[in-house]
Each structure stands twice: as structure tokens, then as C-alpha cells.
Amino acid sequence: MSTSSSPADPLAPQDGWFGSFGGRYVPETLVAALDALAVAWEQASQDQSFLDDFDRLLVHSVGRPTPISRAPRLTEAAGGGEIVLKREDLAHTGAHKINNTFGQVLLARRMGKHRIIAETGAGQHGVATATACAQFGMTCEVYMGAEDVRRQSLNVFRMRLLGATVHEVEDGSRTLKDATNAAMRDWMGSVESTHYILGSVVGPHPFPLIVRSLQSVIGREARQQCIDQFGRLPDHVVACVGGGSNAAGIFHPFLNDPNVALLGVEAGGQGDKPGQHAAPLCFGQPGVLHGSRSYVLQDQDGQTQDVHSCSAGLDYPGVGPEHAWWKELGRATYERVDDQAALEAFSVLSKLEGILPALESSHAIAAAMRLASTRPKDELILVNLSGRGDKDVLEARTLLEQ
Amino acid sequence: MSRIDDALATTRAEGRAALIPYITAGYPSIAATESVLAALPDAGADIIEVGIPYSDPIADGPVIAGAMHQALEQGVTVDAAMSVIERVRSHSDVPMVAMVSQSIVHRRGGTTFLQNLADVGTDGVVIPDADLNALDSMADTLEALDLACALLIAPTTPPARMVELAQRCRGFVYLLARTGLTGTRSELPDLSERVESLRACTTLPIAAGFGISTAEQVRQATESCDAAIVGSALVNFMGESDDPVAAAVTMVESLATGIHRS
Ligand SMILES: Cc1ncc(COP(=O)(O)O)c(C=O)c1O
Question: How does pLDDT run across B51-110, given as a tens digit for each residue?
Fold first, then answer.
């Protein structure tokens, strides 16, 4: 788990900057905490005992490695390249988010902080944070937009069962963006005693680096599994992009494999007009949100625009700075899948493979099927199935009945 | 910036500290903002900080964030905020400092935005969430435009960084009275030690803000600092009143009674 690769590596970040993206656009109160966090991370990620602790948790608490699964019936339905699924849905609590939360809880413990706060959209990051906190006996408070509380009521109940306090956020659009504001505001006042576990590769340095490093276990495993099971690397890696953590986690270990194409899938929502989608890499431009410079959906004054996606975990106007950099460098490409196509993929994967995907991951499935249909049969398309869809069945029923 | 220098030199010569009320542009209306900016100097404001509404202000507590959201919902744009400043400047010499988030500065072209601020007669800028690299890239422009630029010094700021930040300030230094957000709270921590170490690295006037809400707290803060900034309490009082302009005047008159005089 190297945090900073050799300076010779053109894809390695420098001092919290991914090219011209990233940085630390935060009130001064947080700067000392971010400095301390960066130092703690730098030390921890080079400390074998920390890495061993993390690996043990990944094996015994998360259930890693997660397998890769062939999807022959899905592949046949798409008609073309072979689709293979990286099964993050089989990780404890049902999504990739837990890789990050166990890592950061270990880090918090190392820093002597026993109160944890987090923001959550779909609730998966909140559940994963609450889970890790329960295991380590830490206090856990989760901020969640009121609209998401409604859409993901089961996850709210799960968090409470796990001993967390859930704060409903009524500001602004009452979704992930506002939950993130609320968590940052909490941290402004509690920074000395509290660690903020950001749930994606967004926010001020060093969060994008920490979260990506912790999530890279997905790509490291998948890369080796492809070699072991197919004798080769995949031709394409596909992942959905909300803040971008599951995508960054599976992409990163393939960065220096030039023949592996990386495809990030944003939420196309209900159309291409502002407010109808949540696709900053497709439609936004560089701006500053939540502490870093990256692609943002904003108006000509720099005010964050409303976003829409059927999937709460993708319903976010910003994206991790490293993705902005990969886009700019042409190392990864980004496209969008709309609500309807995602819902179709949700049903199709359930029927054809017996796997109920998260609505977030359904975007990646839809894009992979679209891609597969244009590729020859001997191409291998690895999809990050970032989470399972149990949390979404109520919402999906409503949407599918419409 | 000369207006800010002049104002702070004047108060210093008079042997008293300065009062810097903060208001959010467009809250509760653009018309109210214009009247308040015109009325506050006589009520005791030496400098006025004008917040430009932003959709996602991280440093602001519920009162100011709420005021910003309401202003945005009413359609208050950055241009509308600038126009108010411009109209007030056409007939008033009150020093005005814009409080603006980096997102807006960035989107409006960085140095171009600073130029716009200077053109309408703003005397300085506070960017509470500026990245130091971003600030450094604007330093020449700030100087050329003679705009004040106050950086925030937090209770969590270590000594070496305090020096770095103080060196980058123009006009005055913004001392955060506490960790946490803008907002009304009861106890004000003792600032004297922090002020003393800050004085060791700058000769600029020091303004304390964040959570200063009463005349008594203005008094406490200005015992050691050169100015007190009052935001949330004022915005809250204006929001609760049927006559926000009169409310602002009443409150600033009251706050001014706390100003420390030597
Ligand atoms: C299953 C699942 N996939 C993807 C996401 C999107 O986040 P990210 O882009 O950080 O992976 C979420 C967020 O809640 C999620 O729950």
C-alpha cells in the first residue's frame, strides 16, 4: 500500500495535488488536523504492524478477498465481450465502503481519537462506519441528508442498530452534499477529539489519497484474480463514480497497464440539463467544492447546482480530484448512464445472474453491457460490482412501478 | 485598502478599538443590505464586512449559512452583491471588505474577480477557505489593486504557520476567537496569549471574530485586539425583526458601547 510512488511515476500525486486538482481549500481551523492526519497516514502506511492489522481486518472482519465471478448469461445478453464481476457486494455490510472505514478507524485509534463522524448518501458509508466503530468501541455520529434518510430508511435503522447516532440534515438539497457540509462543520468545532471518516476520494488533502489507498485493495485483488483465472489482464475496467472511491480503488492498480482501458460511469439521471443528472466529469468544469479543486456542477457564479440520480450514492455534484486528473490526462474516460438504464440493469442482473446489485453499481453494469455489445468476444470487461442492492429494493419497487 | 488602513489608524489614534459588523449581501433583501450599509457607519461601524452568499459555506454556522441560502433562493447573484457595494460606494466612504468563498473566486476567474471587487469600490477581501497556493497566485494582484486581504488564524494554528499566514495578510489579521463555526455562543475564551504571540510576528491590526455576539464580548475581545467582528448575532437579529435596517442600527449601537477605549 504505497502512498506516494516514486517521483518518476507521472501518475503519482505531489503534496496533495493531482496535477492542478486537489489541494486544501478549507477554513484554517482544519488545517492543523489535516496536517496531523497526513503525517499519521504517512507513518501508518509505512508501518508494517499497521498494515498487518489492516490486512487481518480485511480478511477476518470484511471477508476479503472478494471473488471475481464470470457472468455468462449477462455476457450473452449483452452480446460481445465477456463481462466479469468484482464482487464487492459480498464484502461485510454489502459494499466496498467498509474497506475504507476499517482502515480509517485503525488510523483514528492510532491518533488517539475515539469519536468518529461521517457523512453518508446511500447510507452504505454510514453503515460501514458504524460497523467499524462498533467493533472498536468508538462513538459514531453520522450526518445524512433528510431526502436520503427517506430513500434509504433501512440503512438508517441499520446504523442505529449498530449504535450510531444519525443526524438528519435539512439544509440545501438535503442530500449527500449537505451531509458533507454538516460533517465538516461538526469537525470545525470538534477537531481536537474527533476523526472525520470521509467516505469517498473527495475532500481536502489527505483524504483523497487515504481513501484511494485503502480502496486499492479492490484493484490489487482483481488484477491478480484476472491473471490467475484468465491468464491475462482485463481489456476494460468499469466502475460507477459518485465521489469516485470504488472506481479509484479498482482503477489505481491498473494505472500503469497501458492496455487496460478505464471507464468511469456517472449518474445520467433524467436528462442532460443542469439539475437532471449528477455527472460532473461529463458536464461540469473545474471548481472548488468541499475542500478540493476538481470537476464540479456549478453555475456561472460558482454556486453548486442541484443534482439528481435515482441512486443516493451517486447523487453528488462533485468528484474526487484524482479522477479529474485521470480525465485530463486521458488515462480514464467517463460517461454516463441514466436512471432508466440503471434500473433496467438492476433487474437484468438480478434475473440473469441471481445478483441484486446496488443502484449505484447498476450504472456500471449498464455501461459494461453497452460496452460489451461493441467489443469482440475475446475481450475481457471487469466490472466493479461495488455493492448489493438489498438497501435499494423499496426504492426500486417504487421506481419500477412508475 | 487605504480606507481600511485609514479607519484602523484613526481608531488607534483615538485610543479605541474598531467595530466590524458583518452582514450577508441580499439578506433579508438587497434593498435592506443597501440601507444597512449606508446606516451602519453612524451607528458605530468602522468597517463593514459584506458576505457574498455561497451555496455551501463550510465555516459558517446555521445563522449565516441560512441567510446565504435564503438570499440565493431569492435570486441574489454575485453581480447583485457587487452592485450593492457599488451603489453604496457612490455616496459613502465606509470601508467594505468582501467575505467570499473560494468557489466563487475561482469560478469568476480568480484575479479577474479581485479586479471586479476593486472596481466596484471594495477595499478588501476575506476568503475563509482559500488554499495557500491559490492565495499566493493572487498576491501580486491584491497588491496592485491595493486590496486588503485578511487571512484567518485559528486556535489550532501552530506558531510556524502563524508567521507564514501573518506575513501574507494585508490590512489586518483575522483572529478566529475559537474553533468551530461562526455563531452565537456564550463564553468567549481569553485571547490575550494568542494575541501576544501574533503581535510578535506582525505589526498589522488584529481583528477577532467568530462567536462574538454581545457588547460585553466586544469589550473582552477588544481589550487585546484592535477590532471585533460581529456576524451571526447581527444577522440573526436582523432576520428576526420586521424592520431589519432599524434592528441592525440598534444592535450595532449597542455593540459599539463595548468597544475598548484606552
Ligand atoms: C454500493 C455503492 N457504490 C458506489 C457508491 C458511490 O461512491 P463511490 O463513487 O465513492 O464509490 C456508493 C455510495 O454510497 C455505494 O453505496
Answer: 999 999 988 888 999 999 999 999 999 999 999 999 999 999 999 999 999 999 999 999
- All structural domains of chain A: 19-59+97-212 (3.40.50.1100), 63-94+216-401 (3.40.50.1100)
Distance CA A108, CA B126 (A): 33
CATH top-level class for B2-256?
alpha beta
- What are the residue ranges spanned by the domains of chain B? 2-256
Q: Which residue of B lies nearest to A192 if distances are taken between CA atoms?
A: B156
User: Mean pLDDT, chain A, as a whole number?
Assistant: 95
Between the CA of A127 and the centroid of ligand 1 the distance, in Å, is: 12
Whether the pLDDT of residue B130 is over 90: the answer is yes
Q: What is the ipTM of this complex?
A: 0.95
Q: What pLDDT is attached to residue A268?
A: 98
For an interface test with B, which of A15, A18, A29 has the most B Cβ atoms less than 10 Å from its Cβ? Answer: A29
- Which residues 266-305 of A have a C-beta within 8 angstroms of B? 286-291, 293, 296, 298, 300-304
Of A28, A189, A300, the CB nearest to B181: A189
What DSSP letter does each residue of A315-341 carry, written as one string?
Answer: --SB--HHHHHHHHHTSEEEEEEEHHH
User: What is the secondary structure of A176-229 as a DSSP string?
Assistant: HHHHHHHHHHHHHHHTTTEEE---SS-SSTTHHHHHHHHHTHHHHHHHHHHHHH
Q: Output the CA A166–ligand 1 centroid distance in Å.
A: 19
Q: Which residues of A are catalytic?
A: 97, 119, 386
pLDDT tens for A300-316 read 999 999 999 999 999 99
